[in-house]
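Quick question, first post here. What does this chain look like in 3D?
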Amino acid sequence: MADKRPPAFFIADAIGLDFLNSTATPVDEKIEWLDNGEGLLKWLEQAGLVPRDVAASFRGSALPGELDAVAAQARALREWFRGFMMKHMGKPPTKVVAAELAPLNRVLARDEAFGQVVIGPRDDGGASGLAMEARRRWRSPDSLLLPIAQVIAEFLSTEDLTYVKACEGPTCTLLFLDRTRGHARRWCSMAVCGNRAKQAAHRARSRRSRSSAR
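> Answer (accepted):
Ran it through. Tokens below.
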């Protein structure tokens, strides 16, 4: 059956927040991109968090229902992260209670990431041409949660939550990191919610003009 959902949203300017946006109500109807194991794999591929050959391997080797169970774990991790962000976003840095981070740290503790020295491109500065490349052992479908936990951890430890905002669209639930100059971003996308707001404002002005002309 063809997937009738629109492509997942990657508008947050931070992959960790894009993970929160893997379920969203951009207009009227709620959309869930992590509804099952295949949905999770597709989202991870689109986000660039899992190599395509790894995703293909799990598609072929996972036991029935195994990937769906991992998708359920991903949704649970997402809802923990949503609760954390709803509490802390848009505020100056505050002291976070260590227990709040326990669900994330439990997933991170499973990681089997490692580095490898590989042949990299030489640059004009005469570098050795060697580079460190991150690798990971993908031992089981559960390991699909690891890159998600990593981008959440990197987001929380490097970004200022003061600049995390919710789109001002009246029905939109998307979040984003406002990196604009002056931190004046209001919409998930000017082409979507920003344009709707302009159209609504134009209709309101037109109604007022007609009313005053009577």
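The domain at 15-188 is CATH 1.10.3300.10 (Jann2411-like fold).
Strands lie at 23-24, 31-32, 113-119, 130-136, 164-166, 175-177.
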